[in-house]
Design a protein that fits this description.
Structural class: alpha/beta
Number of helices: 13
Largest sheet: 8 strands, mixed
Order of helices and strands: HHHHHEHEHEHEHEHEHEEHH
Low-confidence stretches: 1-9, 317-325
CATH topology: Rossmann fold
Radius of gyration: 21 Å
Number of domains: 1
Number of strands: 8
Oligomer: single chain
Shape: elongated
Distance between the termini: 25 Å
CATH class: Alpha Beta
Mean pLDDT: 83
């Protein structure tokens, strides 16, 4: 395949994903954008009531109270600085303020460039195993040697599902029987990764947050094993969160952050949720970059996150049109 054709194909994939992201965020956008329009057009002056209405819309869009306060405060400062009197002129400033809240600098994907261990955590049912399979498939397509570690040993279904994804992605998997010690699986997987000169070892972990102490102890043990057996490996700890759960996802992230140094978020199920604003809250309140978003079941439906694209998809149809052309 020619380089020109590859670039074109990649562009088509991104465009297709963007359209699915726009579609997936329809409910959130309808909630927020229609509310914004009524406020911008319904008010003749910028006053406390105007700001309160905007606050309510943002909070209803699951952006969260703390993040909403930052966005509104930023808007107030800019309105004062620029001596703005017309509410309609606040629209672009507001969107820009939201983008600023999501900008944590350049999202790094350094684990792709060196020998690395990716630990994937998250509660059961968020799409963790599926996300691992998709990520493995994408890395394999880049020419990386990938090994999966099935360390969620408390559910036979998790081991079976990950094995199925390893077959689909064409990558190796290290697994033991249901009930095996997860840390022992990681130990074996590290030995295999070294022996087979793997580029990336992706580790699935259990997600029993209702049994929090056991789970957190287990994660600490896994962390110690990795530190001892493979100290030179680049570490990436991704938490998978279900985009449909809104603020509950924030609670889960905070609980895992108590034990694990989370370096990035995979936000799944953005294919019809009314809670898409949670991505803004995660970046702003937790200081953790959203690194991937998932909008469906295919391997290409997990993509690297772009805050500019996301906010455009979330808030403005006009900007969406500009981005696609």
């Amino acid at each position: 395949m020619s380089e020109e054709l590859e670039v074109k194909e990649e562009g088509e994939k991104k465009k297709g994903f963007f359209k699915r992201l726009v579609s997936g965020l329809t409910k959130t956008r309808d909630n927020i954008v229609s509310g914004f329009e009524s406020v911008f057009k319904g008010f003749s002056k910028i006053d406390d009531e105007f700001y309160e209405e905007l606050e309510e819309i943002l909070i209803m869009g699951d952006i969260g109270v703390s993040t909403t306060e930052k966005i509104i405060n930023s808007l107030k400062e800019k309105v004062k600085e620029n001596k703005i009197k017309d509410p309609m002129e606040c629209k672009e400033i507001l969107i820009q303020s939201i983008k600023e809240q999501m900008d944590l600098g350049e999202n790094a994907y350094d684990f792709e460039k060196q020998t690395s261990i990716v630990l994937v955590i998250g509660v059961n049912g968020v799409g963790k195993t599926t996300s691992i399979g998709k990520l493995a498939g994408q890395l394999k397509a880049q020419g990386k040697k990938v090994i999966l570690a099935a360390a969620d040993t408390f559910r036979a279904a998790a081991i079976e599902q990950l094995t199925e994804w390893s077959n689909r992605a064409g990558v190796d998997i290290i697994a033991q029987k249901e009930g095996a010690d997860p840390a022992a699986v990681i130990f074996d997987a590290i030995a295999a990764a070294k022996a087979r000169k793997a580029d990336v070892l992706i580790c699935d972990t259990a997600g029993r947050l209702h049994n929090k102490k056991n789970l957190m102890d287990e994660l600490k043990k896994i962390d110690r094993i990795i530190g001892k057996e493979f100290p030179d490996a680049y570490r990436e700890n991704l938490i998978v969160l279900d985009g449909t759960t809104g603020q509950n996802a924030m609670v889960q992230a905070r609980q895992f952050m108590e034990t694990t140094d989370i370096t990035g978020v995979v936000l799944t199920k953005l294919d019809g949720t009314a809670k898409g604003g949670i991505a803004v809250a995660i970046q702003s309140e937790l200081g953790i970059p959203v690194k991937y978003v998932g909008v469906g079941e295919k391997i290409d439906d997990l993509q690297k996150f772009n805050s500019e694209t996301f906010v455009n998809a979330l808030f403005t149809v006009d900007t969406i049109d500009k981005t696609e052309n």
